[in-house]
Structure formats: structure tokens, C-alpha cells
Amino acid sequence: MHCKGPVLRPSVVTEVRKSKWPEIPLLDNYDTKPDDKFWNKFPFQPLPQTPVTSINVDNLESKVFEHRSSMTVHQWERSLKAIDYLRNGAPSHQKSSLPGCFVKNSRSALMHGREVTEAIATWLDEGYAAGPFSSPPCSDFRVNPLIAVVQPGKVRVVLNVSAPEDHSFNSEVDEFQTETVKMASAAQFSQNLRDCGTDAVMSKQDLKAAYKQLPAKIVDLRLQGFCWLGKFFVETRQVFGAKTSVCNYDILGETLKSFGFS
């Protein structure tokens, strides 16, 4: 005897917002596979054969060599590593080869199905993901669960690479291969602000979709898969929530900062 669970309905929209993808049909239930017509207006991106980035790598390399005389040895080596990561993909730093898996999406993703669907369409449109595919596009493909994080005015869609427990992307990261990224504490920041005095000017830089500027290695794409509405997809850049994304991006970010880029 089979018992059906509760039908998951889309979350109630409390404010009117303009859909970026009005041509994609709205579904009553995001826990079932729609018919093939649903995908007619959905964007598509093929699986990349080489790493892709929005950054002009040749221009960055020219800047690196232009500023070489003013760099420390550490800055020079880090800059070369940043160029390598952009051209060949940043490593996942895995201790061992993970097998394929299929982990179901979270309830939060299903409850916010429309927002998740539009986020995936946007990822494809901007080149941050590949798909949709009718079957896994790589051997030993890992289907990681999607989660939806509700934030003021939006729903953030995240690929959970910490599942399944003890056999996930994050659990297999070799931390001896990654650089340690240190952040200032609130106490340190407030003390520095006080030391600067009342006439000081404070500013900050924020790069939109920072992690998505750094591609993953092609051999690691199978680790960054997910499934939605019966179709398979792959994140092709650094994954928000992956242990390696912060340290991999920091190599690029520090290089850009050393040139005074905004």
C-alpha cells in the first residue's frame, strides 16, 4: 500500500514582483515532473568543454606582468595562480574520488519552486550552469540537493554540497591543500575605525556574483550536479557554500585588489 504525502504548493507571494521569465509556465506543484512542453521556452547551455569565465584573462595577465616589479614574491606567485585558475579551472581539492549519488531536493526548494525555477533559468542565461539534460551528462554524476534560503525581498537558491553527511563534496575537501582565509573580527574593525578618527573616509568593494567569475575544472563538473523537475543540471563555476570557493576566489580577489581594480 502506497500513501501519498502532502502536495507541496508554491509559497504564497506577499508582494507583487515582475517575473524575469514570464514565458516559463507556472506550475501548481514543483514536486512532480512537468510535460515536455514546459521546457520549450527554458534557456539551455551545453556542458562546457573548457573552463569559461567572464573575465578577460589575457588582459589580467598583461596587468600582472606590468606590475611585477612592484609585487612581493608571494603576490607574484598568487597572481600566476589566479591566471591558472581562470584558464584551467579552480581545483576542488578532494581527498578521494567521490562516487555518484542522488540526494533529493529540500522541502524549502519545493515550497519556493517558482523562485528556484527562475533562479536556474537565470544561471543558465548567464552561463553559470549547464543544462537542462534528460539524463546525467557525466559519468559518476552527483546530484546534490537544492535549498531555498528566504532573505528580505528575495529567495536565494543554494546547491547544498554538504550532503550526504560524511560523503559530500565538502566533507572530502583536503584542507591541507587550501589556503586559509582570515577575516577581521567586529572588535578589530571597530578599533581600526576608531584609530582612523572622525575625518576618515570608509569605502568597500563588492564584485557581483564574485564566485561565478571563477570556473571549475572540467573534471570536477560531475561533482556539481543537481536535478530539478526531472532534468539534470551542472553548476560550472565555484559553488556558493563549497569550502573551496572562498579560498579559490580569494586568490583572484587579492590579485585584483593589488592592482586597485574595483
Can you walk through the features of this model?
The protein is of the alpha+beta class and about 260 residues long. The chain contains 6 helices and 7 strands; from the N terminus they run H-H-E-H-H-E-E-E-E-H-E-E-H. It has helices at about 55-65, 75-90, 105-110, 115-125, 185-195, 245-260, and strands at about 100, 130-135, 140-145, 145-150, 155-160, 225-230, 230-235. The strands form 3 sheets. The chain has a 3-stranded antiparallel β-sheet with strand order 2-7-6, with helices on one face. Strands 1-3 form a two-stranded parallel sheet. It has a two-stranded antiparallel ribbon with strand order 4-5. Strand 6 and strand 7 form a beta hairpin. Helix 1 runs antiparallel to helix 2 (about 75-90) and helix 2 (about 75-90) packs across helix 6 (about 245-260).
What does the secondary structure layout of this molecule look like, with pairings?
Blueprint: H1 57-66, H2 73-88, E1 101-102, H3 107-111, H4 113-126, E2 129-133, E3 142-143, E4 146-151, E5 154-159, H5 186-196, E6 225-228, E7 231-235, H6 243-258
Parallel strand pairs: 1-3
Antiparallel strand pairs: 2-7, 4-5, 6-7
In short:
With 262 residues, this protein is α+β, with helices and mostly antiparallel strands. It is built from 6 helices and 7 strands, in the order ααβααββββαββα.
Task: Please bin the fraction of helical residues.
Answer: 25-40%
CATH architectural group: Roll
Low-confidence stretches: 1-7, 9-15
Instruction: Specify the biggest β-sheet.
Output: 3 strands, antiparallel
What's the CATH C level? Alpha Beta
What percentage of the residues does DSSP assign to strands (E)? 5-15%
Instruction: Provide the CATH topology.
Output: HIV Type 1 Reverse Transcriptase, Chain A, domain 1
Radius of gyration: 21 Å
pLDDT averaged residue by residue: 89
Number of domains: 1
Reading the helices and strands in chain order gives: HHEHHEEEEHEEH
